Sequence to fold (164 residues):
Amino acid sequence: MIKRTVLWLAVILLSLRIFGFSSDTGPESDSMSQKITKVVVNVVEKSIPTSAQSESDSEKLFELCHFIVRKTAHFSIYALLAVLTLLLARSYELKMRVSALISASYCLLFAVSDEIHQLFVSGRSGQISDVFIDFCGTLCGIGFVSLICFLWNRRKKSVKDGTE
Fold:
């Protein structure tokens, strides 16, 4: 019961956090991701000889890293949401396929509603491509948990059968 309560709380808090990120205006959202991008660019530039970089190259690198940082954030936060919703559904002792379907459905509907929400936030726009990225993260999160459960059950079975 405590595990289920914690999972419910985690799903609700993460959903609220995603909603909060989407409520940031365009400049606020861009500023946050630029801070992360600067760190990434600094690491990348340290691995490239200074004489090989021009100002134009640095700007292109920043734009590429900024795009990757923003899309990776979408992917990873929805992967985490999928893991939590899948674990929550499994806590009700539902079959893995049913749990995965519930998790995928929740995450997809939340991603769509999140992009619609952004249409009403200053400086933001809803993007179908972001829903696609969110859903790819969702599927990877579900796939990760499914793989772990499969391996865990296989190991338990081999221990039970005495084949390990």
User: Anything to note?
Assistant: Residues 2-36+76-161 form one domain. The chain has a mean pLDDT of 92. The CA atoms of residues 40 and 46 lie 10 Å apart. The chain has one domain: 2-36+76-161.
